[in-house]
């Protein structure tokens, strides 16, 4: 069943990627097409490595560099690869490298986007891992190098594979030459003597020079076909006469500019001395010099160049780089023989190797104790430094080191007793191209030639001795088993090498390693795996790319940008942004309106910073008055404005993001009309932002067709809407400010009525003035689960997203951009109260960057988010917290090709919606117009307003509204009340002698702490220490029938105190002691001991005290000015009775006995609520102590003035209509008065029982309450005082209660 599922998924893959070039290429091959470096045993041979096969390929455990190779038999275009592990085993490859080529000994690595050469493999043995190549390539031979494999449960390398593609072109028709390739065809009998010849080939190239054909004989005969300066030359000689001193060389030339990558067709036909040389359609006949008829060539003919042991190319010529096809030499198909590797064909020795590991090196043998050293090799690299070659001389005569340093080859010669010799040759050799190093040394003479430039070799003639050692090290020194004492301070070389010669003998790497004459580590043989990471340039905004072997670096100097890829602007987006960051002085500033966008920064000046705004001023070339004459409507005068230091796009971007812009415009006229008002075609107009013409003038409304004088009704002639339209023979002017921002800036002035006799006009345009920044303050609130859609985000290779947010919610998606199948997406979301997550899938799998904040982020405060992703890393920053960074491997490529609209406020399908506010959203520096998408019905509001703005029932008693944006809640923590709207009183009944103490502090405040609290946060709302010592805020309500009593007492660690006293006559008194001065304030003139609830509010700020009792007018009292009036170190709050240890003021003691008996409710001192802490504790051990009978009751609650309660929020509401059943005759006892009386009596009966059982109310109080209750019933007057002892909400009897 599992096998059927796998095969089904295989055919599903073919159907999804169905096309003309996805044929399986491996399954039809025979066993002879598979080769490998080794095998585990016969049953794990390479030919078992077919996809869905019953086994698989596994190499020998002793194989240090295993590979498997496939010969496709012909050239194919390769599109994709699929791999599996060995069948029914723990053997599979997790990553591998793929090489391809037309030859079995010359390979090119497949390089993924970003320069990575390692492809992802399997995670089990049965599932198929497919990799579709991002570019197709052509190859006849394929080789796979396992780079990682499963090692758990005894696992090893195991591979089954399939390639997909199609045949490439006609078979055996084309060869590619790269400058270091050639094909040599050997003549059957060692020579070729011909009377007539027919050569034909096709070629195309981008190079202007190169040898296409060459052969020569021992008698001076030769033939050479070459490109030189884009022209085709044929050099042919049948031999030279030594008798008549005749030169037989003949040169012919055809064509020009042949380096255009187009195919060109060449034919050479010779019979005897007559030659026809044809290029495309042009034929040039000639008679060869000399007197011979036969062409005698020896050994071989070269195609594409000459590469031999000591001759890398013909002297003074370069090898061909390009393509050839249909190469025929006297009827012999050279390409056919090359493709089938026939014995007459010899290819250039091309066995490069790649040094790519942290410990790579190559050790080769040499002849021991010779007095001449000769080393020659080719290398290519991007690195600045690295060891090229090291050898130690025999007989302890020192060592010789070749190293790459800052793009030069450094030669270091060290010998005992002599000064170390160091010199350099070459220049910029780390450019990624092949370079040749040829070094020879003998006693007292060393010569080094770079790139075979024999005209300028470097020669050193210092005294030294040379006796060659027996080992040469290339690329680095062995880390272990270093018996040859290879010692260097240089880093290891990373790059490619080939064509190594030691002692003038070519080194065959394969032979050396097979016979174990050499050693190596971390080298990839047979290929050069170098890639160019700076092409195309990954650095943005003209940053300079510098690369090494496995990474690149962007140099952003003098670009105005910073970051890993020069993506982020170093400047602010506007002058408003500078002002908000503390720049309050005028001067020259550089701004970048689109930040990381394509527009360049520019300088604006001057900038005038005022108190609440900053003006950005941009000047131009038309600020001075310009005279105009001789213009008509058909041939108007056109005046273009060139803004200083900024392009038109940059000025437009500034105006687009500004909150307000204005530009002065003035037109002075002498018999020259302006707008031709009121109904004519305008003679003069101006062109603004979108290349649109505008037919209104300064001071008038947009598109009104008027001038400013028409708006002000000050025109010279009231029949016209402009002064100049009166067409008088005297000077007039129309001028004013253009202030419609969407039309600015002014780009062009068009004037067309100055051609009449005496007509003349002058115009001028002022500088552009802008202030504010819409992108900073563009704010919306999400109050319902929804999202906004914007055009598809197309970031390129880098993206940055910035915005502000505030919310009370614990999670929600801010921004999402994706493709159709979510295979490519970016998302930023609030994941929890302390985590913001940047999630993305822009390459291999889903990744995320999580920033964890030490404080909650859903605190309804603004937080700033910056997210950035590029090929180097992904970064997430919130506020001023350290950024969270996820670094990518050095060869990463990211793909951000989104197709879906940009979503703001939720993920697709409204998943994980965000409720809260967003402000200043920018995508890659471009502002997103959030306010333009405001839709109240969809739950999107302008500005940061949520449910608290239009709360159906506001939070009461000082409760703070907590905006959930879709809903709201009331925070009652700093109040003395409870309930959903902070509307429920928390009070208590105190029997005689009962008391409650709330401890504010356990020790006095130090002077340093007070001073820091006072100066760091001197605002009167500050309660850093739990209160502000220069501010007191007291409120409570009470009801009692007994006096005197101490209602509230606040003690301190000093002699300071605050007391509210109920005197013997029932009046209220406030006592204050601050420092050495005591204050007495009378709060009421009538008795408050009447059994009714009364409310007291006392507020002090510095020397001023505000007091209010019930709904009386507030009183204002002043303290005596002096030292800072602070209440020093509050200690405890007492209710019911003062039980302070230590001296208590006599006046307080006089009112302290027998104690308060009655009800007290809603007690609060600053942020301390003693009764709430006692009855609604939010800590395990609240700092409250009680004695006597103290029970919770709201009998002292003062009836509030309640606002309107909407019916949808009223739990007592039963509907818009009250349906009831009635008879025709209503009994007299069912009258309104009687019904209400019965209800009240039943309620009163219940409350009498309640208070008698639980409240222990006194008999006297009960009699008084009963009298008042019966009075209300008799007079049909129902008020809140009648129900002050009840628990029924008063507002539901509001229709009945008329007055108190």
Automatic annotation (TrEMBL):
It is found in: Membrane. CDD domains: EGF_CA, FA58C, LamG. It comes from Sinocyclocheilus anshuiensis. The keyword Transmembrane applies. Keywords: Disulfide bond, EGF-like domain, Membrane, Signal, Transmembrane, Transmembrane helix. It is a single-pass type I membrane protein. This is Contactin-associated protein 1-like. SMART domains: EGF, FA58C, LamG. Residues 174-359, 351-528, 777-944, 1004-1195 form the Laminin G domain. Its main location: membrane. It comes from the Eukaryota. The keyword Glycoprotein does not apply. Residues 1-18 form the signal peptide. Disulfide bonds join 917-944. Residues 21-166 form the F5/8 type C domain. It holds the Pfam family Laminin_G_2.
């Amino acid at each position: 069943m599992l096998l059927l599922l796998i095969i089904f998924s295989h055919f599903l893959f073919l159907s999804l990627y169905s096309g003309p070039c996805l044929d399986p290429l491996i399954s039809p091959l025979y066993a002879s097409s598979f080769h490998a470096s080794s095998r585990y045993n016969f049953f794990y041979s390479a030919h078992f490595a077919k996809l869905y096969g019953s086994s698989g390929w596994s190499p020998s455990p002793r194989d240090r560099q295993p590979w498997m190779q496939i010969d496709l038999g012909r050239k194919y275009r390769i599109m994709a690869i699929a791999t599996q592990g060995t069948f029914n085993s723990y053997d599979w490859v997790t990553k591998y490298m793929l090489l391809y080529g037309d030859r079995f000994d010359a390979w090119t690595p497949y390089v993924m986007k970003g320069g990575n050469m390692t492809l992802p493999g399997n995670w089990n043995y049965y599932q198929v891992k497919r990799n579709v190549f991002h570019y197709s390539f052509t190859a006849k031979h394929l080789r796979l190098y396992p780079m990682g494999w499963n090692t758990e449960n005894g696992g090893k390398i195991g591979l089954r594979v399939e390639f997909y593609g199609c045949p490439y072109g006609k078979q055996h028709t084309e060869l590619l030459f790269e400058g270091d390739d050639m094909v040599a065809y050997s003549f059957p009998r060692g020579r070729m003597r011909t009377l007539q010849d027919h050569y034909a080939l096709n070629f195309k190239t981008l190079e202007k020079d190169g040898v296409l054909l060459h052969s020569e004989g021992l008698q001076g005969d030769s033939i050479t076909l070459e490109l030189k300066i884009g022209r085709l030359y044929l050099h042919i000689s049948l031999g030279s006469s030594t008798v008549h001193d005749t030169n037989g060389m003949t040169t012919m030339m055809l064509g020009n500019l042949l380096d255009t990558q187009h195919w060109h067709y060449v034919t050479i036909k010779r019979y005897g001395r007559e030659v026809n040389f044809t290029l495309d359609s042009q034929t040039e006949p000639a008679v060869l010099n000399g007197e011979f008829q036969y062409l005698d060539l020896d050994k071989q003919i070269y195609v594409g160049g000459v590469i031999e042991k000591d001759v890398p190319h013909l002297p003074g010529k370069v090898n061909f780089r390009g393509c050839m096809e249909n190469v025929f030499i006297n009827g012999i198909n050279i390409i056919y023989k090359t493709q089938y590797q026939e014995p007459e064909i010899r290819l250039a020795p091309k066995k490069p190797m790649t040094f790519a590991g942290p410990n790579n090196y190559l050790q080769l043998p040499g002849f021991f104790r010779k007095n001449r050293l000769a080393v020659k090799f080719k290398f290519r690299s991007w690195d600045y430094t690295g060891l090229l070659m090291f050898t130690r001389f025999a007989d302890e005569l020192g060592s010789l080191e070749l190293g790459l340093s800052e793009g030069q080859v450094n030669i270091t010669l060290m010998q005992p007793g002599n000064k170390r010799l160091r010199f350099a040759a070459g220049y910029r050799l780390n450019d990624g191209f092949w370079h040749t190093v040829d070094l020879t040394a003998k006693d007292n003479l060393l010569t080094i030639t770079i790139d075979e430039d024999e005209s300028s070799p470097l020669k050193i003639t210092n005294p030294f001795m040379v006796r060659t050692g027996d080992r040469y090290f290339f690329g680095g020194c062995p880390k272990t088993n270093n018996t040859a004492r290879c010692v260097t301070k240089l880093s290891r070389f990373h790059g490619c090498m080939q064509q190594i010669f030691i002692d003038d003998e070519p080194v065959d790497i394969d032979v050396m390693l097979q016979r174990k004459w050499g050693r190596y580590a971390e080298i990839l043989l047979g290929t050069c795996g170098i890639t160019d990471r700076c092409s195309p340039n990954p650095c943005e905004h003209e940053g300079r790319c510098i690369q090494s072997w496995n990474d690149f670096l962007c140099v952003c100097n003098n670009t105005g940008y910073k970051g890993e890829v020069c993506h982020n602007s170093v400047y602010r987006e506007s002058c408003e942004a500078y002002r908000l960051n503390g720049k309050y002085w005028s001067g020259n500033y550089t701004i970048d309106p689109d930040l990381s966008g394509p527009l360049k920064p520019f300088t604006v000046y001057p900038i005038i910073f005022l108190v609440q705004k900053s003006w950005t001023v941009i000047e131009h070339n038309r600020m001075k008055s310009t005279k105009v004459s001789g213009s008509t409507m058909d041939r108007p005068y056109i005046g273009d404005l060139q803004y200083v230091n900024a392009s038109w796009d940059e000025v437009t971007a500034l105006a687009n993001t500004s909150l307000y812009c204005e530009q002065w415009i003035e037109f002075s006229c002498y018999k020259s009309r302006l707008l031709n008002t009121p109904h004519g075609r305008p003679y003069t107009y101006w062109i603004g932002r979108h290349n649109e013409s505008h037919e209104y003038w300064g001071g008038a409304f947009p598109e009104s067709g008027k001038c400013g004088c028409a708006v002000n009704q000050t025109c010279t002639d009231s029949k016209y809407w402009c002064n100049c339209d009166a067409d008088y023979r005297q000077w007039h002017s129309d001028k004013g400010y253009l202030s419609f921002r969407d039309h600015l800036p002014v780009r062009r002035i068009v004037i067309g009525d100055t051609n009449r006799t005496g007509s003349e006009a002058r115009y001028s345009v002022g500088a552009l003035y802008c202030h504010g920044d819409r992108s900073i303050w563009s704010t919306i609130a999400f109050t319902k689960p929804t999202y906004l859609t914007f055009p598809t985000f197309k970031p390129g290779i880098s993206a940055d997203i910035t915005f502000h947010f505030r919310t009370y919610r614990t999670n929600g998606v801010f921004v999402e951009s994706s493709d159709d199948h979510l295979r490519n997406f970016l998302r930023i979301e609030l994941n929890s109260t302390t985590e913001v997550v940047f999630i993305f899938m822009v390459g291999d799998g889903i990744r995320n960057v999580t920033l964890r904040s030490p404080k909650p982020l859903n605190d309804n405060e603004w937080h700033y988010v910056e997210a950035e992703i590029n090929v180097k890393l992904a970064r997430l920053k919130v506020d001023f917290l350290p950024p969270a960074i996820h670094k990518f491997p050095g060869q990463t490529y990211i793909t951000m090709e989104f197709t879906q609209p940009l979503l703001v406020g939720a993920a697709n399908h409204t998943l994980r919606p965000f409720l809260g506010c967003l402000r200043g959203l920018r995508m890659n520096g471009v502002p997103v117009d959030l306010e333009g998408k405001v839709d109240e019905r969809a739950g999107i509001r302008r500005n940061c307003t949520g449910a608290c703005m239009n709360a159906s029932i506001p939070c009461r008693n000082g409760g703070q509204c907590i905006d959930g944006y879709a809903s709201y809640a009331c925070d009652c923590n700093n109040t003395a009340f409870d309930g959903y709207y902070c509307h429920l009183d928390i009070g208590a009944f105190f029997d005689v002698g009962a008391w409650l103490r709330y401890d504010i502090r356990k020790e006095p405040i130090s002077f340093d702490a007070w001073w820091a609290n006072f100066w760091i946060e001197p605002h009167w709302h500050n309660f850093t220490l739990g209160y502000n010592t220069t501010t007191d805020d007291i409120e409570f309500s009470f009801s009692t029938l007994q006096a005197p009593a101490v209602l509230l007492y606040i003690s301190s660690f000093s002699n300071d105190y605050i007391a509210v006293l109920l005197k013997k006559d029932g009046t209220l008194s406030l006592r204050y002691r601050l420092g050495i001065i005591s204050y007495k304030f009378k709060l009421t003139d009538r008795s408050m001991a009447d059994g009714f609830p009364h409310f007291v509010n006392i507020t002090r700020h510095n020397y001023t005290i505000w007091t209010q009792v019930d709904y009386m007018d507030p009183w204002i009292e002043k303290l005596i000015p002096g030292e800072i009036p602070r209440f020093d170190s509050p200690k405890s709050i007492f209710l019911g009775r003062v039980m302070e240890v230590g001296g208590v003021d006599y006046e307080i003691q006089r009112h302290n006995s027998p104690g308060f008996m009655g009800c007290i409710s809603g007690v609060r001192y600053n942020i301390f609520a003693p009764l709430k802490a006692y009855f609604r504790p939010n800590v395990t051990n609240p700092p409250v102590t009680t004695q006597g009978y103290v029970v919770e009751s709201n009998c002292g609650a003062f009836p509030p003035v309640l606002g309107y309660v909407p019916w949808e929020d009223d739990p007592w509401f039963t509907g818009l209509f009250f349906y009831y059943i009635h008879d025709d005759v209503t009994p007299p006892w069912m009258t309104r008065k009687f019904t209400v009386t019965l209800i009240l009596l039943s309620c009163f009966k219940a409350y009498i029982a309640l208070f008698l059982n639980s409240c222990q109310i006194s008999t006297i109080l009960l009699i008084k309450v009963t009298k008042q209750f019966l009075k209300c019933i008799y007079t049909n007057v129902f008020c809140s005082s009648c129900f002050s002892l009840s628990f029924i909400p008063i507002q539901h009897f509001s229709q009945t209660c008329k007055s108190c």
